[in-house]
Amino acid sequence: MTVTDGTYIGFIVLTGLGAAAAFTLTDAKNVVRSDGSRIILMKNPTWKSELVGLWQTFQSDPYIVLMFPMFLSSNWFTAYQFNQVNAAMFNTRTRSLNGVLYWIAQMLGALVFGMALDYTKVRRTVRAKVNLVVLMVLTMTVWGGGYAYQKTYTRALVSQGSGTPDDTSDDYVKMDWADSGYVGPMFLYIFYGFYDAAWQTSIYW
Asked: What is the pLDDT of residues 81-104, one digit of tens each?
């Protein structure tokens, strides 16, 4: 399936609008929090000041080391989701739809977890413990579903016909959104996006 000029023009317009929207942001030095405090801006940090700050953090909060595996894994799964699931299994227009649904789910996930984690009527320690349980359940559910889906295909299967680019007759036929089995993988991909935002929001919180 070819992509029309209109698609590229649309991307250029959206990119231009996004760049223009940046000019509407308030300068960080003028931001005042709800409690009246201001943002502390660090001017021109150097690699030395960054390393010193990291060392000071280790001394004041040594338990942060326990979060390193969380930090490390926070962006690894996107390569798998985009390449080994979306690109491998779906045709062009369906990959595009999956992408839209993924990022919408990301926004919803960030909104839901952000609001829940900042809900001041519940103690912070309680919010942290509940979040840990919810995140664990989400991890097992979403990635359990992903594992079940992954067992339905292999890299060799989806690469079928790639050795003969001039002959498409033996190529693996990728799924389209009009196909009968699409709904399940679609929801899996939506939940991948939601989970990604839930994970990232929890780390930053």
From this structure: 998 899 888 988 899 999 999 999
